[in-house]
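re: ur question from yesterday

yeah so i grabbed the chain u mentioned. its 230 aa long if i counted rite. heres the sequnce exactly as i have it in my notes:
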Amino acid sequence: MLIDVDNLTVQLGGEVVLDNISLCVHTGEFIGIVGTNGAGKTTLLRTLLGFVKPKSGRVHTDSAKISYIPQHGSANNSTVPMSVMEVVKLGSAGSAALAQDALSTVGLKDLARRRYADLSGGQRQRVAIAKALASNPDILILDEPTTGIDERAQADFYETLHTLQRKGITIITVGHEVDTLVSHASRIICLNRSIQYDGKPELFDPQKHLPTFYKQQHEFLHHDHEGHHA
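ran it thru and got these structure tokens back, copy pasting raw so excuse formatting
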């Protein structure tokens, strides 16, 4: 077990954001965390990372090494005149060898000398993963990593995550595209301040556990589809 969360309650600004949450994270899992806006998803990640102090309960990480890619990680360093290699070396304590290995893992070895600002959104996200991997983590935590990248880049991105999972790295990611995350994760955790569901993706019912959010998401996609063909 890499992470053990016991009876975790987090309060921010006088409001309970996470209420009595307990869960365990095991080696090699691919966990997708879903929930409505304000459900506590990012707060949970930040508490696991030690950035937020709980009101009660505890998080035990068993000395697991964690790397974190926050929301909009692809925008990091976007206006700084750095090469891809230089960005990744920021995560490897300056080691070119570790940075090169990380770039190879995410399939960007040939772009090592490319100017980071010239990359596409999907390529920048893979650089963000490489930067995180360069520190040789046990767990990779990502917060809404596919925001702003197209469908093809998303497919490549998730394939990269599956490659890392096969190498034994545990993945924990928050996503707003529920169907996509359900199709890729090996475990789904649905939050709404407390845990509404924790289990196999194939048994997760969005219309039951995320009824309002799921309906709004699909109405938006349907409207967008109709508008595209108008």
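noticed a couple things. The longest strand covers residues 15-25. also The beta strands are 3-12, 15-25, 30-35, 56-60, 66-69, 139-143, 170-174, 187-192, 194-199.
anyway ttyl
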